[in-house]
Amino acid sequence: MSEEHYLELCENPVQFENASSVNNVFFDEANKQVFAVRSGGATGVVVKGPDDKSSVAFRMDDKGEVKCIKFSIGNKILAVQRTSKSVDLINFIPDYPHTEFTQECKTKNANVLGFCWTNWNEIVFITDQGIEFYQVFPDKRSLKLLKSQSINVNWYQYCPETSVILLSTTVQGNILQPFAFRNGTMSKMSKFEIELPVVPKPAKLSLSERDIAMATIYGQLFVMYLKHHSRTANSPGAEVVLYHLPREGACKKTHVLKLNTTGKFALNIVDNLVVVHHQSTQTSLIFDIKLKEPDCAVNTHQPVLPARSIHPYRIPLSGPAVVPSQPPPLCQLYSSSWSVFQPDIIISASEGYLWYLQVKLPPTVNLLQDKGKLMDFLLRRRDCKMVILSVCSQILEGGEKGSLPVVATVFDKLNQVYKEYLEAEQSYTVAMESGPSRGSAAQKRPVRTQAVIDQSDMYTHVLSSFTERKDVSHKFVIAVLMEYIRSLNQFQITVQHYLYELVIKTLVQHNLFYMLHQFLQYHVLSDSKPLACLLLSLESTYPPAHQLSLDMLKRLSTANDEIVEVLLSKQQVLGALRFIRSVGGHDNVSARKFLDAAQQTGDQMLFYTVFRSFQQRNQRLRGSPSFNPGEHCEEHVVHFKQLFGASATRSKTHTM
Known about the structure:
alpha+beta
């Protein structure tokens, strides 16, 4: 069996000058830009970003080796660190002078470890003695210190998505102090301790920057710690420990991901999945922190799927040296020259490529045998709809082997998500109709994700084709349809008439009329006008369907016109007249419609009775038996005179 790769590198990577032709390559996580820097006389810089807008090339004076280089958001201001004491800035805003201006760190004897842009004109210097938060004035070519904090710093990490800087403090480096930045303000968050592995004395461990990463998973910020254990025969494998870092309140250890092996690892986050790359086996594992293991503690997770390597990637060749018949060379996956950045970026400096890591869902279907767990996994992924629908079809393809409990579990999981979306949509509609209330934030319209599988999706892609299959017993087909309807009812979702129609057509196709009668009698199939019309059309195949349809229309109470039409079409004119009287609609119905139907029967006494009935109505409503011109009954008056004489139209009316 060929290996099923559920991870792949994006087809169109960002290409830049590789490490062999430049002095240094830098990556800016905030703007997702690669800086290729070449020194000598003047410093040439080529910046490549996710699109052409964020790509730029320029030259600057060679004032020493570049240690760090980053643009502010929107490529407005460039910051370059060349020494451990200061940062140089250059305006890239049109019509502003491009001359450099320099900002030295304020703290005496401090060394600048690096810097982060938190806004287009706000920058944070991280030194070994604390942090300094500045506002940049590009027009004045100056900076203003907004806030600073003294603290011993070993190293730092920045999460651009949440604008949080994490500082490693103390000798062992395992006391972490986060700071949050928003709209020109800097706030100190709760510090926390990373539990280091226990090692035999006198050895002491310190927390390495390589073993820490920050990322947003399911909308929450986590600090991920790659915890290695001592290399002894009975030592457990490495694990990734997740600490949830809220804006306010204490940071808590919430999840442990078991890697079951040791060695060099790297972390990515793709589609809310934690991806752990293992260099020596050249494979990757994926974890979903929302999937809870039934036999483990709440916060302990095993990999969702077996370890697999990233899908082989061929490097696209270009230029005159390309031989058309020769396949492009394979990229060396899990190379030691790879650098991994959050959330989903892999850079090969030696080959000059930046890739986005992606999850492929179709291969996961056969790797995860538990269909309930598979559904939980798929429902949380971005591009899941067609894969989920294909899984539903695949389960049903097994016929009775698919077993109804599995089908029921899958339907319930889908309808739970469907119901949550419908409720969110309804509460949004109510909020919009009532208008904004004081003090409450404006409600956002709920986003319909691909996980919302509605009845039309199921009908179109799964159920309609399933009912036409000849290799599955009709009992199983009906059981599946009824199971889906049961699930919809359980979540109080109004069942669409086309699903009931599918049930009825399947029952009729297999001559299961007794079952149809029972389903209708016990209201398993809910009343609706389209359903009543379908029953009417079945009268030639199943005569009782006519009465079943009428009974349904009567129960609907909003279908009086349809009932009258049905009765008249069956030439049950007196029945239609009695029905319309019973619901109090006699005064408003069209006399012509009834007289047309009575005349078409050819029954003279029936025509006489109906004609007299409407004369009586006219007498009661208007004091005269005559028809108004607007009722267009002239031809019926002439017909009545021809049958019963002119005097009969003027004789006293009688109650029917």
